[in-house]
Design a protein that fits this description.
The complex is a heterodimer of chains A (309) and B (270).
Chain A: H1 2-29, H2 34-39, H3 45-55, H4 61-73, H5 87-122, H6 127-141, H7 144-158, H8 174-199, H9 203-210, H10 215-253, H11 258-267, H12 271-299, H13 301-306
Chain B: H1 4-19, H2 54-90, H3 92-106, H4 112-121, H5 125-151, H6 155-162, H7 167-203, H8 215-223, H9 231-258
Helix pairs in contact in B: 1-2, 1-9, 2-3, 2-5, 2-7, 2-9, 3-5, 4-5, 5-7, 6-7, 7-8, 7-9, 8-9
The chains are: A mainly alpha (309), B mainly alpha (270).
């Protein structure tokens, strides 16, 4: 287990280092002078020189890179060009909104995907099954930026159940969470279904039924628990990907999180903020994936003990 | 029967895209008297917020999404396959570096890197192609590597090596033909992913420039008039969903036909 742990941690560090390097390179890959793009063509020479010095662009690339790495180690992500405050403050200001959205999406996903998958598995090859699976096929294919407006149209404008956008009260999170979660619900309910189908024929379920246990208890206590391991892994792996989807979903609903901050910064050409957003989301993704892998290894004795063999 | 409808949709999409230039369409003609008009006799799909025919813009948008997905999938397939095949066949140090690079690119979730790249490069279709290819090649490289690793110890490859064939020739004549089937299936799913990704970038304002049409940009324009003109959002969304579903279904059929198990997709999928 220990050697597996060290190996995975080392691998993750290497990947994070690579991600940091690519994010650093992003600003240097842009053809032309980033200062020109940021300030526009009408800026004076003195302004350009000032911004160039502020961003450290007047130094050799290697020196800039070391500076950037050194700053990151002290959690210094640079200063926003337009907002005139440290990028870290901007991120911290927006983080709670994205966190709330992710949490709500997770709840919606679990609440919808589990019943959907369980029903599809128990009522296999019936109308229930095919309805659940058609819904899931549709859910994978429908993009966030179309589903969002559709949900707004039906549930906010026609039915008036939820607010259109923004953060007015707890009801406001429902539509964004549904939009962001639909893809995940689709994938997860399929996983629950196939995982349940594998478990349903086990002997211990027959035993539980034979001793007269109520069917609902058999399903929830004996079948579901054993079917959950691959489901939880998938959930963990997809959770990080959720953050990338949040960029589009937050734009649709004007939800003031990290994703919207990134799009706003792209529009105002505030490159340090764009870099920081990409870095934050990607590092979250890597860390969540790593934790999922480790949790899986810890739960599954075949991996936990396999390292010794 | 289950192949015919998806095939029809894809053929209509491709033909519309290829012929959009010669069709008698006026996607940029502004008719102020028709602003936000719902579907009717004049225009089957209605008019948008500037009084432009949505049907015509849909056809031009089909061209955008078709060309972008063709370019992105073509380039990604080329680079990814070449890189994955060459490094995996060479093995050793090269292979280890390639795996590490692929891992780093896979560490960016979904189209996040493409959004950032397209944002920094500025709007425009060629930048969309560059951004999506930068993200897209990784999936093909990984698939090609896995294929080569399972193929390179087969007898026919060893025989070719023993006969003194050059590396390049072995890769081209003995490895690539056997790898083609899974790569083609992966590329089919890739087309659907790129259609969504291009529309997503255009939705964020990072794709085509305003007078040109893209399904994603049409949806974005429509969200401002949801209550008065829902057809502005519905038409492009339906078109995109139809194409994506059709391409995915064809990919499923193709995979079943060729009997392939794919481990993962290209990473472009939302």
């Amino acid at each position: 287990m220990l050697s597996y742990l060290i190996q995975r941690l080392f691998g993750a560090c290497l990947v994070i280092f690579g991600v940091v390097s690519i994010v650093f390179l992003l600003i240097h890959l842009v053809p032309g002078d980033p200062v020109d793009t940021m300030l526009g063509e009408s800026a004076s020479g003195a302004d350009r020189a000032a911004l160039r010095t502020a961003l450290g662009l007047d130094q050799p690339v290697a020196a800039q890179y070391l500076d950037y790495l050194g700053g990151l180690l002290q959690l210094d992500l640079g200063r926003s060009i337009h907002q005139r405050q440290p990028v870290l403050d901007l991120l911290l200001e927006r983080l709670p909104a994205t966190g709330l959205l992710a949490l709500a999406t997770l709840c919606v996903t679990v609440l919808l995907a589990l019943p959907l998958g369980i029903v599809a598995a128990i009522r296999r090859n019936t109308v229930w099954d095919s309805a659940a699976m058609s819904f899931s096929l549709l859910g994978v294919s429908i993009p966030n930026f179309w589903l969002g407006p559709l949900l707004i149209l039906v549930f906010a404008l026609w039915l008036g159940w939820f607010p259109v956008s923004g953060q007015g009260g707890p009801a406001a999170v429902v539509l964004p969470a549904l939009t962001l979660g639909t893809g995940l619900i689709a994938v997860l309910s399929r996983m629950v279904r196939s995982s349940m189908l594998e478990v349903l024929h086990e002997d211990y379920l027959r035993t539980a039924r034979a001793k007269g246990m109520p069917p609902a208890r058999v399903i929830l206590h004996h079948a579901l628990r054993n079917a959950l391991l691959p489901v939880i892994t998938l959930l963990g792996l997809q959770l990080g990907a959720l953050l990338a989807g949040a960029v589009i979903t937050e734009t649709v609903f004007s939800w003031p999180g990290i994703g919207l901050l990134m799009i706003e910064s792209i529009q105002s050409r505030d490159y340090p903020v764009v870099q920081a957003c990409v870095l934050l989301i990607s590092v979250c993704y890597v860390v969540v994936n790593l934790l999922t892998d480790l949790a899986y290894a810890w739960v599954d004795p075949r991996i936990r003990l396999g390292a010794h063999a | 029967m289950r192949v015919r409808l998806p095939l029809l949709i894809v053929v209509v999409w491709a033909l519309t895209a290829l012929c959009a230039h010669w069709l008698p369409l006026a996607p940029n003609r502004i008719q102020l008297e028709h602003i936000l008009d719902p579907p009717g006799l004049h225009a089957v799909l209605g008019y948008d917020d500037l009084g432009r025919d949505i049907g015509a813009r849909l056809a031009v948008g089909a061209r955008t999404s078709f060309l972008v997905s063709l370019w992105v999938v073509g380039l990604s397939l080329l680079f990814g396959t070449l890189l994955g095949t060459a490094t995996a066949y060479h093995g050793g140090w090269w292979d280890r570096v390639a795996v590490q690079v692929v891992d780093i690119f896979l560490a960016f979730p979904g189209i996040l890197l493409a959004i950032a790249l397209a944002g920094l490069l500025g709007p425009g279709l060629d930048n969309v192609v560059i951004a999506l290819t930068t993200v897209g090649w990784v999936g093909y490289a990984r698939l090609a590597r896995a294929q080569v690793l399972s193929l390179k110890h087969r007898e026919h490859v060893q025989a070719a090596e023993a006969l003194g064939s050059r590396r390049w020739r072995i890769m081209r004549r003995h490895l690539l033909p056997l790898m083609a089937a899974p790569l083609i299936v992966e590329a089919t799913f890739g087309v659907a992913a790129v259609v969504v990704a291009e529309a997503g970038l255009s939705f964020l304002g990072l794709g085509v420039q305003p007078p040109a049409a893209s399904w994603g940009a049409m949806i974005r324009d429509g969200t401002r008039y949801l209550l008065v003109a829902p057809h502005m959002v519905l038409a492009p969304g339906m078109a995109m969903l139809a194409v994506v579903l059709a391409v995915n279904l064809l990919g499923d059929r193709l995979r079943d036909r060729l009997d392939i198990r794919l481990t993962n997709d290209t990473g472009l999928r939302e």
